[in-house]
Amino acid sequence: MNAVPLSAQVEHPTAEPLLSIQKVEKRFAKRAVLCGISLDVASGEFLTILGESGSGKTTLLRLIAGFEQLDGGEIWMGRERLDEIPAYRRQVNTVFQSYAIFPHLSVFENVAYGLRAKNAPRNEIPDRVTQALAMVKMSEFTQSAPSRLSGGQQQRVALARALVNRPRVLLLDEPLSALDANLRRQMQIELKSLQREVGITFIFVTHDQEEAMALSDRIALLRSGRLEQVAEPREIYGHPRTAYVAQFIGQTNLLRAEVRDGVATAGAIAWPAAGPSGPAMFSLRPEAIRLASGASANTSGATAIFHGHIRNQTFGGAMDSLEIDCGDSQAMRARVPSPGALSGQQQFEFNAGDVVRVREGSEI
Amino acid sequence: MYSRAYKAGVTIPPLLWVTLFLLVPYAILFCYSFWSVSSLQVVLHNWNLQNYAQLFRNPLYLTVLLRSIRIAGAVTLLALLLGYPLAYYLSFHAAKRKDLLYQLVIIPLWASYLVRGYAWKTILGSDGVLNGFLQYLHITHRPVEFFLYSPFAVILTLTHIYTPFTFLPIYASLEHVPRNLVEASHDLGASPFSTFLHVILPLSLPGILAGATFAFVLTLGDFLAPLLVGGPSGIMISNIVVSLFGAAYNWPLGAAISFCMLLLVVTLLFVTERLEKRFTIS
């Protein structure tokens, strides 16, 4: 233990990663799509690659699957250099955004396809296909033609077709984006429990930050071909590293403040803040802001108070959204337990611990 | 929501056209096939089945018909063997050269059929380009006669002429194979060859059928190529029909043969269309 240099420990927090993406570069017609992506994925992990369209998240997935060639860097699976072997020899399976179910084959044959391609023992195939279809609750459609299935059902077949091969890593390319909201939520829950059940590493691509937070062990937020932050959902929400992350994951108020002597000041609002002095950017989640009852209003170090004019109030059932005009062209968004109709000047407060200093220069 | 006048306006002209220039002539042809010709070369309207009987009794007609079918089969096979790999290459691997190559396949279609037929005549003849070349290389010392005026010459010429017709529907069907299915197949562990066999080939079957039908039907009814490069041993059924309607002046027998051909082709088209529908997956 003592002999291991500290830096090595930091680089490999867990045991050997299952999948190691190292300084991966990809260009399309000279346009850089991925710029030096490095990412380790642990065995059994549910990792989400999150990003808006054009961020390169699908490209990263296609590089792991083997549908695209790297322009730089390496991808390792265990001790095997993954990017040097063709897609059909990788122990990786993909669930495609458009499902990519073979239209000329029955559901059974679709699921059996991978087993046959890899010459699985003939007598094993029916059992394994039946099991896989049972796992995604599609047993009754075994002999159906794919054209008779709904989008959600095709999705399940695609999942069974990938899982039946017992891949070491399952890649999912926005698999739920074509489903309607209800089905989507249901599939999210099923997907998560399925992943726990089979214990296979999932790499899940989505542009939906709520989906990412609901499903993932870790989220890798990609922006214009660079990793903005890789962290657990709670961490990435609670401690966004950059203004971009804070804005992309959930809603936030970005406060441009001046820090001096341990106090940050943004317009009329001031709160205690650690770190170096000078201009800085802070993120404050709307739900961290409370309506201050006059009595509890105190100016003890941990709580900051500000006044603002209610510009807009949106009823949202349990929680209302408020748009607050704090003067000096500073606007704030708050989410508070429905207080009944509010108007005019109000007093608000938040805990200094809820304000997070973020790196500037990368706003949306 | 179209008015009745509009609907009538767009449907009647083509219907009229088909009736006047297709159905009526066929009906007349059909009638002719039951008539006969007197020794004075007058068509007698005495209804009988003699023409059809003669068709099956006279070995000449059956021999030529079978030869035509063999030639059509050979041309179809060759056109598929040439057209499919070409279409496959263009669709999957040509990348930037795709449009150029596509045009190169199409351009010969702009040249007159007759010109291409004559071109083969000059290539294959005893003083032709091919013989000259072979003698120049001292591979042969005398002109090879069987190049021209043989079924071989007919097959070669028609393969050249009809391969683009086979290529086009195959290319179209390959272009419609969703590329993510190819990726899915690789993803599931199938090698490129296995992917071709189990995904690309089955999904391009409608194109293969359409292309094969084109080549077969067009060859079967062809009479110019045998006329130009076929010689006596390369005569096809259409040449017989032409001569029966012309010099031999036996329209009734010509009509009977034509009608049998029509039946053959229509049956073929019907069958292949049913098959195409079966293999086409929405």
What does this structure look like?
Chain A is α+β, with helices and mostly antiparallel strands. Chain A contains nine helices and 20 strands. Chain B is an all-alpha fold and 282 residues long. Chain B is 73% helix and 1% strand. In chain B, strands 1-2 form a two-stranded antiparallel sheet. In chain B, strand 1 (36-37) and strand 2 (43-44) form a beta hairpin. The model of chain B has no long low-confidence stretch (mean pLDDT 91). The chains are: A alpha+beta (364), B mainly alpha (282). The A-B interface holds A 65-67, 86-89, 92-94, 96, 98, 100, 102-104, 113-114, 117-118, 147, 161-162, 165 and B 178, 180-181, 183-192, 194-195, 198-199, 202-203, 279, 281-282.
Strand order, largest beta sheet of chain A = 6-7-8-3-9-10
CATH superfamily of the largest domain in chain A: P-loop containing nucleotide triphosphate hydrolases
Instruction: Could you tell me the CATH topology label of the largest domain in chain A.
Output: Rossmann fold
Secondary-structure element string of chain B: HEEHHHHHHHHHHHH
Structure summary:
The complex is a heterodimer of chains A (364) and B (282). Chain A is α+β, with helices and mostly antiparallel strands.
Strand and helix map with partners:
The complex is a heterodimer of chains A (364) and B (282).
Chain A: H1 6-11, E1 19-28, E2 31-41, E3 46-50, H2 57-65, E4 72-77, E5 80-81, E6 92-95, H3 107-117, H4 125-135, H5 151-163, E7 169-173, H6 181-198, E8 201-206, H7 209-215, E9 218-223, E10 226-231, H8 233-238, H9 243-248, E11 253-260, E12 263-266, E13 269-272, E14 278-284, E15 290-291, E16 303-314, E17 319-325, E18 331-337, E19 345-351, E20 356-358
Parallel strand pairs in A: 3-8, 3-9, 6-7, 7-8
Antiparallel strand pairs in A: 1-2, 1-4, 4-5, 9-10, 11-12, 11-14, 12-13, 14-20, 15-19, 16-17, 16-19, 17-18
Helix pairs in contact in A: 3-4, 3-5, 4-5
Chain B: H1 4-32, E1 36-37, E2 43-44, H2 50-57, H3 59-92, H4 98-106, H5 113-124, H6 129-136, H7 151-175, H8 179-187, H9 192-203, H10 205-220, H11 224-230, H12 237-245, H13 251-279
Antiparallel strand pairs in B: 1-2
Helix pairs in contact in B: 1-13, 2-13, 3-7, 3-10, 5-11, 7-10, 7-11, 8-9, 10-13, 12-13
